[in-house]
Specification:
Arc Repressor Mutant, subunit A; homodimer; Tetracycline Repressor, domain 2; elongated; DNA-binding; mainly alpha; 2 domains; 189 residues
DNA sequence: GTCTATAATTCGATAGAC
DNA sequence: GTCTATCGAATTATAGAC
């Protein structure tokens, strides 16, 4: 009878349904174009309920856009395969259920201040530290910056703009080709 | 007395002032958040004039977002320096006066259908053909796709999101590091 | 918990005086 | 050419009945 996890209180199910609908709408329309009304309709509930459960559009966005890159400890990995590992990890996170926050952030970051700030935070708190263990500290910001350009571009072209030639790239090709690039950026080799 | 090119009819000067203001506002806010009223204020004229000169917000956007990548003939270049040449060319275009259309498109493409379609067109009509002369036709879409991810990511991180470590990269570093990546992507080597 | 009604803004666009 | 006034639509958010 329920699509959602069983044995939840009704209020929790409603809240989860709103969050799920909000993820879809925010991810496909961006923050500005998404409306409370549309999200409510997609969740099959009344628009007022969205406000009741989340308070405001801003807070709803902040909640569903939350997510972690959850990078593994790169120092513990085979040093020759760091690039490939990084790409494979990013792809997994972005295509996972819990990774829905990334397309949302990315699509809204271009015109929403909160999303843009969150994106900066994300790279400062997770990508930069990861680069610190892979080479000289002085060059870590530069290496992190280069890594960021390549990964953000892949995500933008593939998941947001959906450029046909990028969408058509198969996973192995991406891991191999872009992995080689990240390997060079990350290790400075 | 005039900031704009001398000896224009007043109507042309007004039109140019609106277009210049629109470029700034669209580039910094994106399509949705930019308002006719704000653009008019930035241009120092009445909001009604924007409609009179451009008809609608859509047509104003289409006009100021227009631009060309204007790629040189890559086949005529030193084959070992194609990557560096590409990056240097992109940087020049994006930072030039007439290249203002690109940040505008990029910032709006995530949530504006016209901008997204225009971006697809741009790569299909200009990047893909350029790849055709550099290697086997079969792999041209794949090579163009990879090039697109790296260049879009650089533009996004540097000009739209303004990620500090990417903004701080100096031009020589970008040309060298990202040039090497494009060299590999474009030539398939 | 849920919904109706509506307040309060804001926006793009138009009509018309001067 | 320029501006005042305003329309009509859409939005977030709230008040309050049931």
């Amino acid at each position: 009878m329920n699509d959602k996890p069983l044995k939840m209180k009704k209020s929790d199910r409603t809240r989860a349904a709103i969050a799920a609908a909000a993820q879809r709408i925010f991810a496909s329309q961006g923050y500005e174009r998404a409306t409370i009304r549309e999200i409510a309709a997609a969740a099959g509930i009344d628009p007022t309920m969205v406000m009741r459960y989340f308070g405001s559009k801003d807070r709803l966005f902040a909640e569903v856009a939350e997510f972690d890159l959850d990078l593994p400890d790169l120092a513990a990995l085979d040093r020759d395969r760091i690039g490939e590992t990084l790409v494979a990890h990013f792809l997994s996170v972005w295509e996972s259920e819990s990774g829905g926050g990334f397309p949302i952030l990315l699509r809204s970051a271009a015109s929403n201040d909160y999303a843009a700030a969150r994106m900066q935070q994300l790279f400062a708190a997770q990508v930069l530290p990861a680069m610190l263990v892979l080479g000289p500290p002085d060059s870590a910001p530069q290496r992190a910056g280069l890594v960021a350009t390549q990964m953000l571009g892949l995500a933008l072209a593939r998941y947001v703009l959906r450029l046909p030639p990028v969408v058509m790239l198969d996973r192995d090709t991406i891991v191999r080709e872009i992995g080689a690039t990240l390997q060079r950026y990350a290790t400075g080799a």
